[in-house]
Automatic annotation (TrEMBL), chain A:
Species this chain originates from: Tumebacillus permanentifrigoris
Limits of the DNA polymerase III beta sliding clamp C-terminal domain: 255-376
Keywords annotated in UniProt: Cytoplasm, DNA replication, DNA-binding, DNA-directed DNA polymerase, Nucleotidyltransferase, Transferase
Organism placement in taxonomy: Bacteria, Bacillati, Bacillota, Bacilli, Bacillales
DNA polymerase III beta sliding clamp central domain residues: 137-252
Family: Belongs to the beta sliding clamp family.
The protein's name: Beta sliding clamp
UniProtKB/TrEMBL annotation, chain B:
Any one GO molecular function term: damaged DNA binding
Organism: Tumebacillus permanentifrigoris
Role noted for this protein: Poorly processive, error-prone DNA polymerase involved in untargeted mutagenesis. Copies undamaged DNA at stalled replication forks, which arise in vivo from mismatched or misaligned primer ends. These misaligned primers can be extended by PolIV. Exhibits no 3'-5' exonuclease (proofreading) activity. May be involved in translesional synthesis, in conjunction with the beta clamp from PolIII.
Cofactor annotation remark: Binds 2 magnesium ions per subunit.
UniProt-listed Enzyme Commission number(s): 2.7.7.7
Descriptive protein name: DNA polymerase IV
Binding-site residues for Mg(2+), renumbered to this chain: D16, D112
GO annotation, cellular component aspect: cytosol
Amino acid sequence: MKIIILKNALVQAIQNVHKAVSSKSTIPVLSGIKMAADESGLRFTATDLEIGIETLVPTLIDDEEIVQVKEAGAIVLSARFFGEIVRKLPGKTVEIEVKQNYLTIIRSGKTEYNLHGLDHEEFPRLPQVAGNQVFSVQSDILKDMIRQTSLAVSSEEIRPVLTGVLFTLKNGNLKFVATDSHRLATRESIVEAPPEMEFTNVIVPGKSLNELGRLLADNDVLVDVVVAENQVLVKMGHTQFYTRLIDGQYPDISRIIPTTFKTGLTVNTKELQGAVERASLVAKESDNNVVRFNIKHDRLEITSASPDAGKMSEPIDEIQVNGDELLIAFNSKFFMDALRVIDSPDLLIEFTGSMSPFLIKLPDNPTYLHLILPVRIY
Amino acid sequence: MTRYGLTDKRQILLVDMNSFYASVEQAQNPGWRGKPVVICGDPERRSGIVLAASREAKAFGIKTVDPVWEVRQKCPQAILVRPRMETYVEVSLRIMEIAKRFTPQVEVFSIDELFLDVTGTEKLWGGPWEVARKFRELVREETGVVCSVGISYNKLAAKVCCDTMAKKAPEGIHEWKAEDIEREMHPLPVRELFGVGSRMEKHFHSRGLVTIGDLANYPLHLLKKRFGVMGEVFHLSANGIDYSPVTPNTFAKDMKGCGHMMTLPRDYESAQEVEVVILELAEEVGRRLRRMQKRGRTINIMCGYKGFMGGFSRQFTMSEATNLTRDLYEAARKLFHQHWNGSPVRSIGVSIDNLVDDTVQQLDLFRDWERERRLAYTLDNLQDRFGKTAVLRATSLTAAGQALQRAGKIGGHYK
C-alpha cells in the first residue's frame, strides 16, 4: 500500500473511527485502526466487536484530490500511536507506505516515522448487513432522539435489556424507549420507511447510541438505518456505524404510562430547573437525592431537607394547576436529567397521586415523554 | 500531654469485669467458687474453644480461645461449662444499670467493659475513686462479679490503666493522671497500647520501638509516612492523648454494618448445601437491618475452607441499598459462586455495610417493593412474637440447614 492524503482529511477520518477502537481488548489487533486503499479511496475501520465504525475518504471531493492511491493494499496501525502522531505531523499532506513485514513509513514535511503495523487479514470484517429493513431519518432528529432517551438507560448489568434503548417502528413512526425501572423516556418521530416496514423489540445498547450520537451531524441530511437480525447499521454519508443488539425481551411498558391524571401543572422550564437544582444541594445522595413538590392551587413549593445539612424551600407562583393539591417526593437527579434534554420554554407535569409515576411532557411537542417514579417516605 | 500543651480535665472510668463469664457462673453456682471453671463450646463440636476461664483456671495456663482438648490436658480437674449467653447478657445489662446510677454518660464497650464519664460528679459522689469503690461494691453485692477500674482523663488512658495496672492492684482500682503517663505507661511494652495487635507490634519492633515510650518519642512524620492516619493516632495514643467522647450507646444509630458468621457442623462439599446456609445468614442479616431500620449496599461474603486451608472474603456493592433477604441472598450467592474454588467449606459468613436509613424507597416500575417490604416486616414480627422457629424457610429443614440449631443460641453460643 502506498498513498498520499491531505492531513486534515486523515485526522478527521481517524477521529471518526477512533470511538470504536477497543481500549481493553485481549485481541491486539482490535486496538488498531485498519486502513485499506483501493481505487475508491482510503477506508478506515475500527471495532471493539460491540460497535464498528467505517469511514471512507474518497479520492476526490468536489474535484479536489484528497487521497492519491499509488498502490492498493491494507494495514492495521495501533490507534494510540497513529492517532497521536498524525495530529502532530508538520506537513499539509501525509504519505503512508507499507513495506515488508507490516513496516509502515509515514512521511510528512521532513518528518519520517517507521511504525510496526499488524496484519490486516487478522482484523475482523464488519458484518454484512442484509438491507431489507431500511428507513431514513434526519441526522439532527436521530441525534435528538438519542439524546432524549439514552439518559434513562440502566447502568446495571443485572437486567441487560434495560441497558439498551428499545426501537420500534410501525406505520412510519419510529419510537425510542429507555428505562432503568425508576424513570422512563420515550421519543417518537415520523421517518421515511416503506409502508409495510415494522419491527419491535430491537434493543440497541445505550453506550453504542452515545457514540453514534457523537458521529451524527447537526443537520437535516438523511441517514439510512438498516435493521437486521442482531445488528443495526447506520449510514451517514461516507461513514457507517454498526452496533450489536442486546438479546432478550424488553419488558412490556404499554400499561406503565398513565393516560389520565389528577394534578396537572404548567410551569416555566428554566425556573423549575433552577429551583430543583438548588433544592438538590441539601438533599442527601444516599437517600435518593429526595426533593419534594408541595402543589397548592395557586403555587408550587419546592423543598428538601437532610438531617445533617439543613433544609431549603422555594415557591414558584407563576404556575397553572389543574386538579387536586398534592405532596410528592422524588429523586431530583432524575428530574434534572430529564430537564437537561428539554428545549421547550414551558413544560407540563401530570401527577396521579404521590405513589404513582408522573409524566413530564412538552406543550409544543407530543412526541416526547418522560416518566419518573416517586420516592416513598416512611 | 504537657508536650502538646493540651489539657483534658475529664474523669473517665473504664470498668472491666474479671473473667466475666466464669465469674457469673461461680457467683451463681457457689460450689464452683475457688475452683478452675472454664466456659467453652461443646467439646463434641469442633467449634469448641475456651470463651472464658476463671482466675483459678488461668493459673493452669488456660487461655481464651484454647481448644477444649488442650484444657483437658492442662487441667484435667477443670469444670467445663457450656456458655449461657442469655444469662451473661442479662448480668451485663444489670451492671450497666448500676453504672447509670452514677452517671448517664455510660458507654458499653463490650459485654464486660464499660466506660463512665464522671466529670463534674464530685459533689455527688466525692470524686472518681469514690465512684469506683462504690461501684465495685454494688456490682459484687448485686451480681457477685468482681471488676477492675481504671481511672484517667480520657478513654484510652483509662483502658490501658485498667488492663495493665488496676487488674493487679490490691483494691482493683488504679488512676493515671496526665503526669503519670510518662512514668507508668511509657515503660510498658508497646503491645499494651490500645489498638496495637500482634501485627502492629511486629511493625513497631522492626523499627526498634519496644515500649510505648519509644513509640511516643518516635518522629511523627515517619509514623505518618508509614502508617498514614493510623500513624498519627498511634502517636497521640502513645502520648496519652485521646479526645474521643464517652458516647452513651445508641446501638442502631451508629451501626456501620452488621454480619453473621458460622462454623458449619461438618465441611459442606456441595454448593447447594452452602447456599442453604447463605440464605439463612442473609435472612439474619436482613432481619438485623430491618430491626435497625437500615438498609445496606455493600455485601461481604467470607468463606473458610476445610482444615483452615485458606478461603476468601469478597465484597460487592449493589446498585441500591436493600434490607430484603432476597436481594442480600442473590448478591451473596453470586459472590460465593464467583470466588469459590470448589473446596469443602468449613465456615461461612455474610455481612453488610454502607448503611443508609430505611426511610425512603425509590419506587420501581417492575418490582413491588412495598409488598416485599410488608412481607419481610410481617415475618420479622411473627418471629419476634412466637420465636425464631415460628416461621422458617423450607430449605432450613434440609440436612444442610442451621437455622433451627442457631435459634437456640446467642452469637453462636448456647443461651
